[in-house]
Write a structure and sequence with these properties.
The chain contains 29 helices and no strands. By secondary structure, the chain is mainly α. The longest helix is centred in the first third of the chain and has 32 residues. The relative contact order is 0.07.
């Protein structure tokens, strides 16, 4: 177990050498063979010590092996260092162990397994839940949360059995019951699910107030548990997403806040939740109900932001630096009439967050920043005279995923080389592109078309920014549902680019760049090149994307990159299938091949060095 975790730590460190090193690419090349060795060790360990024993079924697992695997799961779920947490693998282990612990009849161990499984299902669900598009993938984990809570019900119903459990186990049961409601959480407003959350908390609170249950566990601080339940109950307001909400829901949530404050007053302070957070939640509910003005809400978030340290990059500090404007933009998204009245705040805060993101790399904040990227992208509002979303997005990419920046830059350089050869050899194929009706117009606008293509390349993988916590899994191969999640980056990129004027012209390259030429494969499956005038440009990007991805050993350190000659064989074998045959034919030109090979051998290293070189 320790060897696996230590190997993963080394892989992470070797994959990201210190940026003071001016020859970053050279250092990565030197690390490459060691990374492959470590990755092979991890793969062997997981196959022999984790996957094979668990695939043999619960009956074949020994007590010692189950204990070892549970300990590994606990270590993998330790978020003390965010970059090493692997909740998906931890969930795989504990889910597979549940039948074993159910069979052996040890209540405390079985309840601990359910407790772990529910917590991990929530954490994995957070990674997978990117809105309605990922509902099927995330739904499995949401359902698991509810299933764990339902299995725990029997232990509550048996009062004598509950009394006999160790206090640690009793607390784990209470936590399972409390967090059942998270199975109904979604990153969008859904009234039915909001009501399901409310009913779940109400049912749990009824249980906490049961005199028989309280007598069965006198060591539990029941009012503290009740205070925690009411604060989480009130926090359901965070899932209203500034949407118009029925007043009975708002009254119920407001009352939960009142009850939390009453318990606070009765019992004094508690370490679980500061009363100011409860008051803040009540103020947000008041905005929905019309008792808190927009100006008061704006001041609340502006004050939160002003209290933050712009030079601190731990998770809590990052939240206070980034989230205030996210909340204000969330209100403005549902109430666009408010934008003008807070324009000055939005302009100032967007610039502040932009600068904060730029400094993130110097603070070593790659991994922490990943937790906030989706919010920043989803809620961004473009303002006239402000920072265009395109510039904000590129800054976000540079700060959090420099290897993705390098890939996009390489795709741009390769695409332009292919385009220039196309202009030289087959310019008539470009008629129709960018609205050009004649060859003469193509020739006149060739520089404009080239620049449009270049900008498309820089943004083609924008959707991957939503999935960095999955993509950056260095210690092992990805699981099937993780691959399925990443395959959604094309649609996610299209959706986010389509929302903003500065990126809307480039949205379709995100959608099309993984679609096969013959439309028989690739993704998204429902996309077609028919009636798409710029299809040829997107097919150029497909070629360039595959060339760079397949030949870069550093960006995909778990496998050796192909040589250009090997990739050329792949291009020709898949001509007319994955790749446009007219574009593949261009590689018969020795000059193009020479330019591409020079880019792969020389320019890529320079791009790595530039991208990872510290400012100043």
């Amino acid at each position: 177990m320790l060897d696996y975790i230590e190997c993963s730590r080394q892989i992470r460190a070797l994959s990201m050498p210190l940026e003071e090193n001016r020859q970053f690419y050279g250092q990565l090349e030197a690390n490459f063979l060691r990374i492959r060795q470590l990755f092979a060790q991890n793969r062997t360990y997981l196959n022999e010590q984790v996957f094979e024993p668990l695939m043999n079924g619960a009956d074949a697992i020994s007590a010692e092996k189950a204990q070892e695997l549970m300990a590994l799961s606990d270590r993998l779920a330790d978020t003390e260092t965010l970059e090493m947490a692997d909740v998906r693998l931890a969930f795989y282990i504990v889910e597979a162990l549940e039948p074993y612990y159910a069979r052996i009849g040890d209540k405390a161990k079985y309840i601990h397994c359910l407790f772990r499984q529910e917590a991990l299902a929530y954490n994995v669900g957070q990674i997978f839940d990117r809105g309605r598009l990922t509902e099927t993938l995330a739904g499995r984990y949401r359902s698991c949360i509810i299933a764990c809570a339902e299995k725990a019900e029997a232990f509550f119903d048996d009062i004598d059995g509950f009394a006999a459990l160790p206090q640690k186990t009793q607390k784990e049961l209470l936590t399972i019951g409390l967090f059942r409601a998270t199975g109904y959480e979604r990153p969008y407003y859904d009234e039915r699910l909001i009501r399901d959350q409310i009913r779940s908390y109400q049912r749990y609170i009824e249980r906490l107030c049961d005199p028989a249950l309280r007598r069965a566990a006198p060591g539990i601080k029941w009012d503290t548990e009740l205070y925690s339940a009411y604060t989480y109950f009130m926090d359901v307001q965070e899932f209203l997403d500034w949407h118009e909400t029925p007043d009975d829901i708002l009254c119920t949530l407001d009352e939960a806040g009142d009850r939390a404050l009453a318990l606070m007053e009765k019992n004094g302070t508690t370490s679980q939740r500061d009363p100011s957070a409860v008051l803040s939640g009540k103020k947000a509910i008041g905005f929905y109900r019309g008792t808190t003005s927009f100006e008061e809400m704006l001041k609340k978030y502006a004050d939160w932001e002003s209290e933050s340290d712009p030079n601190a990059y731990d998770q809590l500090s990052m939240s206070s630096n980034v989230m205030p404007i996210v909340f204000v933009q969330g209100i403005c998204r549902e109430h666009p009439e408010k934008i003008e009245s807070c324009r000055a705040y939005l302009m100032r805060s967007q610039q502040r967050v932009f600068n904060y993101i730029q400094r993130a790399r110097d603070k070593g904040a790659y991994n922490t920043m990943q937790r906030f990227i989706g919010y920043m992208m989803d809620y961004y509002i473009e303002l006239e005279g402000g920072i265009p979303f395109k510039q904000f997005l590129e800054n976000l990419m540079n700060a959090t995923q420099p290897t993705l920046t390098i890939h996009c830059s390489m795709v741009a350089a390769l695409s332009v080389s292919i385009f220039d050869t196309l202009m030289e050899k087959r310019p008539e194929l470009l008629i129709g592109v960018c609205g050009c009706r004649t060859f003469s117009e193509v020739w006149t606008r060739r520089n404009e078309i080239r620049e449009f293509l270049r900008e498309c390349c820089y943004l083609h993988d924008a959707g991957k920014l939503f999935f960095l916590d999955t993509i950056n899994q260095f210690g092992r191969m990805l699981m099937d549902d993780e691959f399925a999640l990443i395959r959604l980056h094309a649609q996610m990129g299209y959706d986010v680019l389509s929302k903003h004027e500065s990126t809307k012209p480039y949205a379709k390259v995100a959608l099309y760049h993984h679609r096969w030429y013959n439309e028989q494969g690739g993704y998204p499956a429902n996309t077609s090149y028919c009636d798409e005038p710029d299809a040829l440009l997107y097919q150029i990007v497909t070629c360039a994307d595959c060339i760079d991805a397949a030949t870069d050993s550093i960006g995909r350190a778990y496998s050796r990159g192909k040589t250009f000659e090997e990739m050329l064989v792949d291009l020709r074998q898949n001509s007319g299938c994955i790749f446009n045959p007219d574009l593949v034919a261009l590689f018969d030109d020795a000059a193009l091949c020479e330019r591409v090979e020079r880019l792969l051998k020389d320019e890529r290293g320079k791009m790595y060095d530039r991208a990872f070189m510290r400012a100043g």
